[in-house]
Amino acid sequence: MAEGYSAIRAAIRAKMAPPADPFAPYLGGAAAAPAKRPPAAPMKAGNGACAAANANPANDGRTPATRPRLQARDAVWYNQPAELAALLDDCVGVNSKDTDGGTLLHVAAERNRIDIAKLLIAKGASRTATDNSGKRPADYAASPEMQALLGARSPGGPSTPVPASGANEAYCKQMWHEATALCGLGAARCTNTASIRYSACLKKGTWY
Question: Is the pLDDT of residue 204 over 90?
Fold first, then answer.
């Protein structure tokens, strides 16, 4: 009797066993083990600078896509290298351009931000990038030190148009106001640089 039950149990187990792999004869007599997927490459974690730029209430008037880039430009204007470096390390392209075709190095040259310009160049900023007017950063150099850092101006490049004589003083005043608008309180050096350029503008007819 016990042998009968054993035979029945063996028959049941045989029916419940998974079917044999039909490809086993072609695989050396054994079923191939399923291929293992390689582990996914870990995603590069951002430092949060761009997320902070998007969340900054000061950027509410800017579209989300442009906020990090515009805040990087603000960091150049306000001479904030640490903030600029964080944005460049997170999501802002060092050679990204604004609507005028200018790069951050163009802005640094015009604002005479020597340390900022050195940081941008160390991060891979192009000295030969041109804006919509065909000008390189060196064409906007505001000091001999900046000129030495960026190199010679564009050979035969376009020059800033000179206003008509009657509008010259108004033009220079407008440029002076724009240059000093973000100097901040107590920024004597920034204001003094703008005043020197204002005097030169009255003589040359151009701010640059």
Answer: no
